[in-house]
């Protein structure tokens, strides 16, 4: 099991996965927006999305949990 975390503080612009979705390593799962830039956050392993911790529009801090993959 692994947790995808924010690489920087910013707003959650788009959540690209839902709980139960199958993802591949390197697949974008969330897009953050910071300083008018879109920052894609990718899965670090293949698996199934167990939990999505954030909603579109949320503000997240650096290293905050976004998605859990099993």
Summarize the structure.
By secondary structure, the chain is mainly beta. 0% of the residues lie in helices and 54% in strands.
Task: Lay out the secondary structure.
Blueprint: E1 2-5, E2 10-15, E3 22-23, E4 28-34, E5 37-42, E6 47-52, E7 59-60, E8 65-69
Antiparallel strand pairs: 1-8, 2-4, 2-7, 3-6, 4-5, 6-8
Write structural notes for this entry.
It is a single chain. With 70 residues, the chain is mainly β. It has a single domain (2-69), classed as Beta Barrel (OB fold (Dihydrolipoamide Acetyltransferase, E2P)), CATH 2.40.50. Helix content is 0%, strand content 54%. The chain has no helices and eight strands. It has strands at 2-5, 10-15, 22-23, 28-34, 37-42, 47-52, 59-60, 65-69. The strands form two sheets. Strands 1-8-6-3 form a four-stranded antiparallel beta sheet, with no helix packed on it. A four-stranded antiparallel beta sheet has the order 5-4-2-7, with no helix packed on it. A hairpin with a 2-residue loop joins strand 4 (28-34) and strand 5. The termini are close together. The relative contact order is 0.40. The model has no long low-confidence stretch (mean pLDDT 97).
